[in-house]
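Design request, tokens follow.
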């Protein structure tokens, strides 16, 4: 267990940014392994002879099931034990499970392998958020959170680009002979290639030092559940509003992320390789720039004394997302649709640094991983599981036509995006009270 530290003993900037970059690399690998399925929806669907709804369950529910189940107990462990080691083990588990997706020959076995991916990734973010909060003071934390969340877009883009490249060399529905495995379809090979490098990263993560726990809460033992729940209840508007707001925003992000490749194929006739190159590049450039600019913007607002700057930055992004998410599926050309998809990725990334820093700021040290796990629980139940299924259900049962996918995306976004703004406004109200409350244990300045 890490020793507690005084407020003056912050780790060096070199150590802090090395940790942030390594954790961002872990988040990148997590999203490579998570997002690889989106590019392969159509070939897997054709090969396994399943519906859009079944594919949405494979993308969302199978992953979320164990992500949710392991998140809380692993977070409680992270509030007590070495968080760096937890991250290293988590990377190993989800990377191995991704590679095992490449060995699946039925919907059931692929579903089980995806459960393994979720189980591994459930140990990453709660521990990572807690580590970063002990490496960076509150005026620098949003920028560090932005760097960490950059992994979402680098990983998503890498999955698309690498998957598109593999599809060019080995089409997803063709066969290739793999040593020790035998005849393997192209989409199986994609999972094998994308999953195995994470095993090396799990070993390299041991180069990151476990930081001392900062602030008053860092010197106390991890509190029992009744004390944790009492703290959350005192600031329920902040926790519920921020978590629900981001869950709904991520519902839109996961829903569109899961179905944009199929949307581009069905509406504009783009090939898997073309989608991987175009959509992957847009995701990388726009998403990464959004997370970095948004995180540093929130940090700048805090340095200038704007106490609510973390959520002001996020609110700007949330509001701006409404027209973008509703309109991109209705654009008449692939170019105009991709332009708005780029704006959507930028604005979604812009929100994360400030929002995540706000949650850490109002949470005592030894509760941070547990609170983060609660946030991830809500985000994944509503966003990761609900988003892809919502669009699939609207497509299959409301419209009853796979070619109506653009309208299904618009309908889901038109409902979820405004609701995310309403929830974040509730969170802003509670956050304002929490940072002014003497019982809140804030991050050391």
């Amino acid at each position: 267990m890490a020793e507690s530290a005084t407020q003056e003993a912050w780790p060096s900037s070199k150590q802090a940014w090395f940790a942030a970059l390594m954790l961002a690399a872990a988040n990148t690998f997590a999203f490579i392994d998570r997002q690889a399925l989106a590019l392969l929806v159509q070939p897997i669907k054709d090969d396994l002879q399943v519906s859009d709804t079944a594919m949405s369950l494979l993308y969302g529910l199978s992953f979320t099931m164990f992500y949710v189940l392991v998140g809380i107990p692993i977070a409680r462990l992270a509030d007590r034990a070495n968080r760096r080691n937890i991250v290293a083990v988590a990377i190993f588990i989800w990377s191995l499970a991704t590679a095992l997706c490449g060995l699946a020959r039925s919907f059931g076995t692929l579903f089980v392998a995806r459960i393994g991916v979720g189980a591994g990734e459930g140990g990453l973010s709660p521990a990572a958020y807690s580590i970063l909060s002990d490496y960076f003071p509150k005026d620098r934390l949003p920028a560090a959170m932005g760097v960490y969340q950059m992994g979402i877009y680098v990983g998503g883009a890498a999955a698309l680009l690498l998957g598109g490249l593999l599809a060019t060399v080995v089409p997803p529905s063709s066969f290739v002979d793999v040593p020790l495995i035998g005849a393997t379809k192209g989409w199986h090979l994609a999972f094998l290639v994308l999953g195995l490098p994470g095993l090396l990263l799990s070993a390299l993560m041991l180069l990151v030092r476990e930081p001392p726990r900062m602030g008053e809460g860092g010197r106390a033992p991890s509190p029992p559940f009744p004390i944790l729940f009492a703290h959350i209840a005192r600031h329920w508007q902040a926790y519920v509003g921020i978590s629900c707001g981001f869950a709904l925003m991520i519902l839109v992000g996961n829903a569109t992320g899961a179905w944009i490749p199929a949307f581009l194929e069905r509406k504009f006739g783009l090939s898997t390789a073309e989608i991987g190159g175009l959509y992957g590049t847009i995701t990388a450039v726009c998403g990464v720039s959004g997370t970095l600019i948004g995180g540093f913007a929130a940090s700048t607002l805090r340095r200038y004394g704007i106490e609510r700057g973390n959520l002001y930055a996020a609110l700007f992004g949330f509001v701006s997302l409404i027209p973008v998410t509703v309109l991109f599926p209705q654009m008449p050309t692939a170019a105009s649709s991709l332009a708005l998809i780029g704006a959507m990725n930028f604005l979604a990334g812009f929100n994360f640094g400030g929002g995540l820093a706000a949650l850490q700021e109002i949470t005592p040290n030894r509760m941070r991983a547990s609170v983060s796990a609660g946030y991830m629980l809500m985000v994944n139940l509503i966003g990761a599981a609900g988003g892809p299924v919502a669009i699939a259900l609207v497509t299959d049962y409301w419209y009853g036509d796979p070619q109506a996918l653009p309208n299904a995306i618009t309908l889901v976004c038109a409902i979820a995006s405004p609701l995310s703004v309403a929830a974040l406004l509730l969170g802003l109200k509670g956050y304002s009270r929490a940072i002014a409350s003497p019982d809140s244990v804030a991050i050391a300045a």
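Comment from the thread starter after seeing the answer: thanks! The domain at 13-436 is CATH 1.20.1250.20 (Growth Hormone; Chain: A;).
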